[in-house]
Amino acid sequence: MGKIAPSILSADFARLGEEIRKVExxxxxxxxxxxxxxxxxxxxxxxxxxxxxASSVTNLPLDVHLMISEPDDFIKAFAKAGANIxxxxxxxxxxxxxxxxxxxxxxxxxxxxxxxxTPLDTLEYVLSxxxxxLLMTVNPGFGGQAFIPEVIPKIQKLRRMVEDLGLNLEIxxxxxxxxxxxxxxxxxxxxxxxxxxxxFYSDDYEKTIRLMRExxxxxx
Length: 220
Ligand code: DX5
Ligand code: ZN
Known about the structure:
The chain is α/β, with parallel strands linked by helices. It is built from 8 helices and 8 strands, in the order E-H-E-H-E-H-E-H-E-E-H-E-H-E-H-H.
């Protein structure tokens, strides 16, 4: 069964603890945390202190998406703060293989994200070391952007690669995901669905998550 990962980027930060508890109760599987540095992406969000605070209010895995340059400099701090999954962007890592090992050495599960324009080939020689691949379905930096449909064949291709190699890794999609787009991305082979505005801007988190599950096409 696919997993739903609400992105707290669209939560009410003045009531963050309450918002996290609410999505946990509403059936979330992961809590997705978007870290932006104003350099790799044109926006600044949160750091390890908030991850630490978030980890104190939930038992769900914290899925920390680092949209930062020089990710190696901060992996240790995020792992210490309670990040369970740490995702780095292939575009931001100079020695990607080393960075992946470093995440695992810090006791977290390593994942790599690719921007919509970045080819899958980038992952060919590291795929077997990963627990998850994040395919961006918008250009990173902001919540509430429109889903980019050109990523669909990329999801299909990655799913085929994962199956051909017999790997056990999750394929996460992030950006413009919600009840209207989940059928297409799940049918293509994604199995972790990040949703920020679709969940946190809805009136009823539980209803939105339920609707997303109903519209998920399970992997065959
Ligand atoms: C975008 C972030 C996303 C963002 C998704 O740079 O990585 O996680 O929160 O927001 P929505 O679901 O609103 O597109
Ligand atoms: Zn994200």
